[in-house]
UniProtKB/TrEMBL annotation:
Biased composition (Pro residues): 38-50
Native species: Emiliania huxleyi (strain CCMP1516)
Designated name of the protein: TatD related DNase
Keyword Signal: yes
InterPro entries linked to this entry: Metal_Hydrolase, TatD-like, TatD-type_Hydrolase
Length: 420
């Protein structure tokens, strides 16, 4: 861990002891037993032989896209939903549809050190197999997975305190925060955080040498889901990853949920490194004030379906400067739903080369058949829907889509160092 990161962590601990860091007042319910580690998805299957590849159906627009965030390691693309196998793996068909819709690059997001290794393996395999979309990977730890930075004994200690706080016993959130601060101050824990950060650094370096890594992340703060990882542990993990940002290195792929004051403050503390590396706050769903705060730090903004649910969301999305805008799907999550405020702007997907309407059937997962999409499962091809809603929110409608798409593509190529 860099000296600046160490100083940030020590300052945080001092603030906890002095009572200047206020724990959340809301109690987040979790199971009474220790919070289990999130299960890793199974490694994606190898690409099928070319003879088995699914032909892309005729489909939409001359726009080019970079999907800056796609969870292609998710088990849904292996046909598994909540541990139950519903259909065969169809990732290659998913990527064929993405290419048909104009997706030239997609960044595979990772949430743990092990997922980062799997993401790099997926990118290598798909590139070797002639994937029609140029894939890249992130390397980092999601805020909800930052317990991975801790040794097993201390992790179990924190998980027990989380369960007690959720049950309303053991002193509640204040006691949890005190236990976190004490645990994080232990030299053995600080050494473990440093070791985990160094493992990430080595993987980043390896991936960069191979031309596979596009960003550090997904890292940040998520105070909506404290039942997975408590606040101070998240901050320690985020500080360690901010320490990986350097001039000339990969940019930051950032996650910010319900933590705007602390998230922005931590980025501001490391403004030199953050500014030198650059960064995109993905899946942005904040208000106009938060948008301006993040833009003032030199950060850029990623928009997906979760950014476009309400009329208020649409108004904020329309305020993102074209020079700082990025588009993403966060597939298989964060799709644009028919119940969302921007649904009136949705039109059928179209083939990038011909403009013909896509003819892909949509089926429930239990009735899936080859060549069909899965109902309610997002795919990178759905980035066209994000574009349609963003352009509509800006008042440009269909006519304005070319300008928005071109700007977002250029921004993503610039920030993530991709070939145009």
């Amino acid at each position: 861990m860099s000296s600046a990161s160490l100083q940030s962590l020590q300052l945080l601990l001092a603030q906890c002891r002095a009572g200047t860091v206020t724990p959340p007042t809301r109690v987040h319910r979790v199971a009474l037993t220790a919070v289990p580690k999130p299960t890793q998805p199974p490694p994606p299957p190898p690409p099928p032989p070319a003879s088995e590849a699914v032909a892309a159906a005729p489909t939409p627009t001359a726009a080019r896209f970079v999907d800056i965030g796609a969870n292609l390691l998710d088990s849904m693309f292996a046909g598994s939903y909540r541990g139950k196998q519903a259909h065969e793996a169809d990732l290659d068909a998913v990527l064929a549809r993405a290419a048909a819709c104009g997706v030239q690059h997609a960044i595979v997001t990772a949430g743990t050190l092990e997922e980062s290794r799997l993401a790099l393996e997926l990118v290598r395999r798909q590139r070797a197999g002639g994937c029609p979309v140029r894939l890249h990977s992130t390397v980092g730890v999601h805020p909800t997975r930052c317990l991975d930075f801790l040794p097993e004994a201390e992790r179990a200690e924190i998980e027990a305190a989380m369960a007690a706080a959720a049950d309303g016993g053991g002193g509640g959130e204040e006691t949890l925060a005190a236990i976190e601060a004490e645990v994080l101050a232990r030299p053995s824990v600080m050494a473990a955080i440093e070791a985990h950060a160094q493992a990430l650094r080595r993987l980043l370096s390896q991936g960069r040498e191979e031309g596979l890594v596009a960003a550090i992340g997904e890292c940040g703060l998520d105070y909506d889901r404290l039942h997975f990882c408590p606040r101070l542990v998240q901050r320690a993990g985020f500080a360690a990853q901010l320490g990986l940002a350097t001039e000339g290195g990969p940019p930051l792929f950032l996650h910010n949920r319900a933590a705007r004051g602390e998230f922005a403050a931590m980025c501001k503390e490391r403004r030199g490194a953050v500014g030198a590396a650059g960064g995109v706050v993905h899946s942005f769903d904040g208000d106009a004030a938060e948008l301006e705060q993040l833009l003032s730090l030199g950060l850029e903004i990623g928009i997906n379906g979760c950014s476009l649910k309400t009329e208020a969301n649409l108004a904020v999305a329309a305020r993102v400067p074209l020079g700082r805008l990025h588009l993403e799907t966060d597939a298989p999550w964060c799709g644009v739903r028919r119940t969302h405020a921007g649904a009136s702007h949705l039109r059928p997907l179209r083939h990038a080369a011909t403009g013909a309407v896509c003819g892909w059937a949509e089926e429930k997962k239990e009735r899936w058949r080859r060549g069909a999409t899965v109902k309610d499962r997002g795919e990178p091809c759905h980035i066209q829907h994000v574009l349609q809603v963003v352009s509509g929110a800006r008042g440009g409608g269909e006519e304005g889509e070319a300008e928005v798409a071109a700007a977002a593509f250029a921004n993503s190529v610039r920030v993530f160092g991709l070939a145009s």
